[in-house]
Amino acid sequence: MDKFIIRGGKKLKGTVTISGAKNAALALMPATLLASGKYQLDNTPELRDIATMSRLLQTMGVDIERRSHSLHLNTFRVNKFEAPYEHVKKMRASIYVLGPLIARYGYAKVSLPGGCAWGPRPVNLHIEAIRKLGAAVDIDQGYIIARAKRLKAAKLAFDVSSVGATGNALMAAVLAKGTTIIENAAMEPEIVALAQFLMKMGARIDGISTTRLEIEGVDALHPVDETMIPDRIETGTFLIAAAITGGTVKLERCKPNHCTALLAKLEEAGAVLQMGDTWIKIKAPRAVEPVDVTTAVYPGFPTDMQAQWIALMSIAKGSCMVTDSIYYDRFKHVPELVRLGADIELSKNVAVVKGVKKLAGAKVMSTDLRASASLILAGLVAEGKTEVLRVYHLDRGYESIEKKLQQLGADIRRVSGQEF
Ligand code: UD1
């Protein structure tokens, strides 16, 4: 397993290009199961999660070829309608094949994902949605087994706003007979991107970008090409990298509109921001002001930026509270940040962060994707040498993170598993 060695203290400077959104790609790729033929997905990042989704779709008979950042998919020969445990346990987003398979082929066998490194993440809403759309669903030996002749429209009202369940319900409803309503739908940019992709394929969807979607089922869809939206979490992570190191960085090919909650918090923390439609320039605060954050569904502050925010607040000139209201257990980074000298106390889903003057390098362990990002950020400002072990978590969701940071002047290098 690779590790990163970081020598902190370099102020980041320069320009970085933001990659395509992992979570949009993970929704659009399975959506190609909804119509036979050839698709080209441009600006698809090269990441482990994308490779995992590719392998899963390949086991179903999808032909996939990557040419640089374009993914070419041919769904003509799909002949297997199963997502085995080996794939789903690696990546929960594999559950996204459930909706398209049941809608297009009338059968789906998808492994239950099980727990996550940072707590339980149920899929009850996904199952309820396809049941309401007329599928017969059994849970057998850890698998969701769904059958339906043709799905029928239904009124769905989610108790909790869920990105994945909204995506699955949407992909199922586009081919169902009649008009489906989804109340309390997620409106994260990745769901909007999925809905727009489905519209391009011939779906009829009203209410995109709102919490009420109205989907008039059609008999068939057709393949199309699409370009992935920019990754708002990578954007946020680089903004914090600039802020935490006292740097000045321009981010290109990003979408500031998708990051408004974070941008407002960065300004409160003292950062100076300039932006256009597709770029942001950030000048770090002279001294980071402490700013409370509570995660919320979009357009609120994303849970996927909570760990990175705690890293930034750990060097603020005062105390603040960071609350995760989406995932109560998502704090595996806290003990690791404390190893780097941060002063953080955890009480249920609230982290009380007391800013310290400096962090000091140490060996720390990656536990999940965003937790790992927060350790890199802390390492960039910690005095001396920080080693971040098990960086494969980062490779799931950040494209060439060390190269991008090196271009901005960071002292970070990857040491491959064989070298130590
Ligand atoms: C997606 C993102 C993930 C992000 C999360 C929240 C992808 C591939 N992943 O995950 O990076 O952290 O949104 O923004 O896009 N819930 C239920 N029952 C369900 C499903 C969800 O109770 O059947 C709850 C979850 O426990 C959680 C909340 O709903 O408290 C939101 O989770 P959800 O939006 O579903 O997350 P994912 O789609 O898994």
Could you explain how this protein is built, in words?
With 420 residues, the protein is of the alpha/beta class. It has 2 domains: 3-19 and 230-419, UDP-n-acetylglucosamine1-carboxyvinyl-transferase, Chain (Alpha-beta prism), CATH 3.65.10; 22-227, Alpha-beta prism (UDP-n-acetylglucosamine1-carboxyvinyl-transferase, Chain), CATH 3.65.10.10. It has 14 helices and 24 strands. Strand 8 and strand 9 form a beta hairpin.
Provide the fold topology.
Blueprint: E1 3-7, E2 13-17, H1 22-31, E3 38-42, H2 48-59, E4 63-67, E5 70-74, E6 82-83, H3 85-88, H4 98-105, E7 107-111, H5 124-132, E8 136-140, E9 143-147, E10 155-157, H6 163-173, E11 179-183, H7 189-200, E12 204-206, E13 212-216, E14 225-227, H8 232-245, E15 248-252, H9 260-268, E16 272-275, E17 279-283, E18 293-294, H10 306-313, E19 319-323, H11 333-339, E20 343-347, E21 350-354, E22 363-365, H12 369-381, E23 385-389, H13 392-397, H14 401-407, E24 411-415
Parallel strand pairs: 2-15, 3-14, 6-7, 10-11, 18-19, 22-23
Antiparallel strand pairs: 1-23, 1-24, 3-5, 4-5, 7-9, 8-9, 11-13, 12-13, 15-17, 16-17, 19-21, 20-21
Bound molecules: uridine-diphosphate-N-acetylglucosamine.
Uridine-diphosphate-N-acetylglucosamine binds near residues 121, 186 and 190.
